[in-house]
Specification:
By secondary structure, the chain is an alpha/beta fold. It has 16 helices and 14 strands. The chain has helices at residues 37-41, 47-52, 73-91, 100-103, 110-129, 158-177, 200-221, 245-254, 267-272, 277-286, 313-325, 348-373, 376-384, 391-397, 403-411, 423-439, and strands at residues 11-12, 22-23, 31-32, 35-36, 43-46, 95-99, 134-139, 182-185, 191-192, 226-229, 239-240, 261-266, 290-294, 334-336. The radius of gyration is 24 Å and the shape is globular. The two termini are 44 Å apart.
Length: 441
C-alpha cells in the first residue's frame, strides 16, 4: 500500500523554488568541512509524533487524518511500519527514533507486550535491510501507563521499579538487535509533585542504582551505544530530577556515572527550564557531555511543551555554532522531536513540517560555519578577556596568586576601566550573516 500518494522523493531545488515538497536550503550532498550535510546533520524522525500522534490535546480529541487509522491493534502497528519506511525514503532522512509503545501496542501483561514488540521489531529489521535508514536511538516509555503514576525508577512502589527495569532491559536488547547508536533515558515521571510525601534521597539513590544496572546490562549483552539523559524541568511532574543539563551533570557525578552518559538536549525543554537552547548546548559542550539533540522549539507565549518544528533561524544558528564547536554530534543527531500543529491535520503536512525543520537547521549550519570561519565570536571573546592573558589576570588563570597578592594589586589601582559588551552590535552582525546566507553570498 502507498500511504503518501501525493509525494515523490523530496529533492533540493534551492531558495528560489516554490515547490512545497522540495528543500530550499538543505542540500544533502553539499560538502562543508569535508562532510556532506546529510553526514553532518544526521537528521532523524521521531516515530511517536509522526506516526503515533493523533494531535489530541488537553482540550480536544485528535484531528489527524492518517491512512493507517483504518487499522487497529497489531494491524495498525504493522501499517505504521510500512508507512514510516515510505516516509523515511521519500524524505531522505538517515535516522529514526522510537519508544517501545510507539511501535507496538502494550499487552495486558509484560509478556504479551514483549511478544508484540518481537513481531514488530522483526518487521522493522527486515525493512532496514533494504533501506539506508538507521536507528539513532530507542527508549522505554516508563511514564504513560497508569502504573507509573508515582514514577518508574523513582517510584515509591518496588514492583513498579522492577517493571520499569524489565522494560528497559527489553529495549536495550532491541537497541542492540537494530543497531541503535544511542539509548535515551527521559525521566518523564522521575520527580515529585510535592515534597510532603517524598523521600528524595531514596528516590534519587534508586534512580542512580537503576542507571548503573542499565550500564551493567548493556555491557553484558555487548550493546555499546552511547547512553543519553534528556533533561526536562517539569511537566508532567512539578519537579523532575533531570531538571537541566547542570542538574543532570551533578547527578551523574554524585553517582559515579559521568563516564557512561552524555545528554540529549531538547530546545523546548531548555526554555521550560528558563534557559536558552544554546545555553544548554554550551554547558554540555564545555563539559564534554553533548551527545545528541531533539530539534524543536516552544511557543514563548505558552507555558508548556508545545514541541513545534524548528523554524527560528536565530536559534538554529546559535545551536549549530555549539554543535560545530563540539566537533559535531558524534553518534548523536538532530532528531525532530516535534509535531505538526493541531490544525495541520493532513498527511502532507508531515512532509511540509520536516522540510521546514531540515531547511532551518541547514541555514543555521551554514551561517554558524561562516561565523566560525570568520572568528566573529572568538575575536570578540579574545578582546573581552584580554586582561587574563598577562599580568595579574594570567596569574589568576595559572593559579599563581592568592588573596593577599590580589589585595596588593587592587590597592595599587587608581582607576578601573571596563569595555562595552557591544551586545546590540553582535546581534546586528548575526542578522547580517543570516541575510547574506539567504542572498547566497
Amino acid at each position: 500500500m502507498v500511504y503518501f500518494e501525493n509525494v515523490n522523493k523530496i529533492k533540493y531545488e534551492g531558495p528560489n523554488s516554490n515547490n512545497p515538497f522540495a528543500f530550499k536550503f538543505y542540500n544533502p550532498e553539499e560538502v562543508i568541512n569535508g562532510k556532506t550535510m546529510e553526514e553532518y546533520l544526521r537528521y532523524g524522525v521521531a516515530y511517536w509524533h509522526t506516526f503515533t500522534q493523533d494531535l489530541t490535546d488537553p482540550f480536544g480529541a485528535g484531528t489527524a487524518i492518517r491512512p493507517w487509522h483504518q487499522y487497529t491493534g497489531m494491524d495498525l502497528a504493522k501499517a505504521r511500519v510500512e508507512a514510516s519506511f515510505e516516509f523515511f525514503e521519500k524524505l531522505g532522512v538517515p535516522y529514526f527514533c522510537f519508544h517501545d509503545i510507539d511501535i507496538a501496542p502494550e499487552g495486558s501483561t509484560l509478556k504479551e507486550s514483549n511478544q508484540n514488540l518481537d513481531v514488530i521489531v522483526s518487521m522493522i529489521k527486515d525493512y532496514m535491510k533494504d533501506s539506508k535508514v538507521k536507528l539513532l536511538w530507542n527508549t522505554a516509555n516508563n511514564f504513560t501507563n497508569p502504573m507509573f503514576v508515582h514514577g518508574a525508577a523513582s517510584s515509591s512502589n518496588a514492583d513498579v521499579y522492577a517493571y520499569a527495569a524489565a522494560k528497559v532491559k527489553k529495549q536495550l536488547e532491541i537497541g542492540k538487535e537494530l543497531g541503535g547508536e544511542n539509548y535515551v533515558f527521559w525521566g518523564g515521571r522521575e520527580g515529585y509533585e510535592t515534597l510532603l510525601n517524598t523521600d528524595m534521597k531514596l528516590e534519587q539513590d534508586n534512580l542512580g542504582r537503576f542507571f548503573h544496572m542499565a550500564v551493567d546490562y548493556a555491557k553484558e549483552i555487548g550493546f555499546d551505544a552511547q547512553f543519553l539523559i534528556e533533561p526536562k524541568p517539569k511537566e508532567p511532574t512539578t519537579h523532575q530530577y533531570d531538571f537541566d543539563v547542570a542538574t543532570g551533570h551533578a547527578f551523574l557525578q554524585n553517582y559515579g556515572l559521568e563516564k557512561h552518559f552524555k545528554f540529549n538536549i531538547e530546545a523546548n525543554h531548555a526554555t521550560l527550564a528558563g534557559h536558552t537552547f544554546e545555553h544548554e548546548l554550551r554547558y554540555a559542550r564545555v563539559n564534554g557531555l553533548l551527545g545528541s539533540v531533539d530539534a524543536n522549539q516552544g511557543d514563548p507565549l505558552l507555558g508548556w511543551d508545545t514541541d513545534e518544528f524548528p523554524t527560528d533561524l536565530y536559534s538554529t544558528t546559535l545551536a549549530m555554532y555549539e554543535i560545530i564547536k563540539n566537533g559535531g554530534l558524534g553518534a548523536g543527531g538532530l532528531n525532530f522531536d516535534a509535531k505538526v500543529r493541531r490544525g495541520s491535520f493532513e498527511t502532507d503536512d508531515l512532509f511540509h513540517a520536516h522540510i521546514a525543520g531540515m531547511d532551518s537547521f541547514a541555514v543555521g549550519y551554514k551561517v554558524a560555519n561562516q561565523l566560525i570561519e570568520d572568528k566573529v565570536f572568538e575575536n570578540l571573546m579574545e578582546d573581552r578577556y584580554k586582561s587574563y592573558t598577562s599580568g595579574v589576570g594570567l596569574d589568576i588563570v595559572e593559579g599563581k596568586t592568592d588573596f593577599k597578592k590580589l589585595e596588593e594589586h587592587a590597592l595599587g589601582l587608581t582607576e578601573i576601566t571596563n569595555k562595552s559588551g557591544r551586545l546590540e552590535s553582535i546581534k546586528a552582525t548575526i542578522n547580517q550573516y543570516l541575510l547574506r546566507a539567504y542572498a547566497g553570498k
